[in-house]
Design a protein that fits this description.
alpha/beta, 7-stranded mixed sheet, two-stranded antiparallel sheet, 9 strands, globular, binds S-adenosylmethionine
């Protein structure tokens, strides 16, 4: 791995937003954030993004294009939280589609279960860096706004590769690097001021939302993340920017 890639992957291990924390501490702090915001998570997503996250998740599922036939199609949605992506994929897919959410937070899973009702959705508590599934179990792996919360990106990508069947698809939706000069300044002003303020008002926790904004800035940019995916063994790695690079979707295949 190049020095640049290694240093970007290493940075994720010790950054909790802009604060530097020990490698063992990061996951515990991330878990505290999601335990606190879980009951208001869906509402906050809508408020913070003006509903944009819904369109980005629609784009993710459109690119995934789950088969509409009755043939089996097993999706694993990692860091799936309250089920936004998995529920969309089930709606888009045929009768053979099934979805499993794997998330580390009991509180987020609880909020997801309440919301999913009787949809064909399985919930498993587990860590993206050590997935509790056998190798070659899934036809597709999705992760939306989860990757930047992880401590070891290479471990998570290796796990994605392991649990996918040969011919399986990897898709990651994540905040990314804004590539338009005016938009990046507007976006900075909005996210560092309005988002923590909204978090304080609606979820009662400005600090948790400050972490979310800062973690976005520390995540590798589009090209760097593309190379990390390639290094995990994936092929045909591509990405698409959404809303000027505020978010990006990376797609890859385990061939
Ligand atoms: C920003 S939320 C995204 C939820 C959902 N995918 C969405 O797009 O709305 C991030 C999720 O990552 C989960 N998470 C954080 N660290 C994790 C880990 N190591 N393994 C699995 N899930 C993790 C959190 O519990 C939280 O539910």
């Amino acid at each position: 791995m190049s020095e640049h890639l290694k240093s970007r992957a290493d940075a994720a291990k010790t950054s909790f937003g802009f604060a530097r924390v020990g490698e063992e501490a990061k996951q515990g702090l991330v878990n505290e954030v999601f335990a606190k915001v879980a009951p208001r998570y869906d509402l906050m997503n809508d408020l913070m993004s003006g509903g944009l996250h819904r369109l980005w998740k629609d784009d993710l599922v459109a690119w995934l294009a789950p088969p509409r036939s009755a043939s089996p199609f097993a999706l694993l949605d990692v860091a799936g939280g309250t089920g936004d992506v998995a529920l969309r994929a089930l709606r888009a897919g045929g009768s053979g589609a099934s979805a499993t959410i794997c998330d580390i937070s009991a509180e987020m899973i609880e909020a997801g279960r309440r919301r999913a009702g009787d949809a064909k959705l399985g919930f498993v508590r587990g860590n993206a860096e050590a997935l509790p599934f056998a190798k070659s179990s899934f036809d597709a792996y999705t992760i939306a706004f989860g990757m930047r919360n992880l401590t070891h990106l290479e471990a998570a990508l290796a796990e994605a590769f392991r649990v996918l069947k040969p011919g399986g698809r990897f898709l990651c939706l994540e905040f990314s690097a804004v590539e338009m000069p005016l938009l990046d300044r507007l976006y900075d002003a909005y996210s560092f001021n309005a988002i923590p303020a909204l978090g304080g008002l609606v979820a009662g926790d400005a600090a948790a939302y400050r972490y979310l904004v800062e973690s976005i800035r520390r995540f590798p940019d589009q090209e760097t993340f593309m190379h990390l995916i390639e290094n995990a063994g994936f092929e045909r790695v591509r990405y698409r920017n959404l809303s000027g690079g505020i978010a990006a979707i990376h797609s890859a295949w385990r061939l």
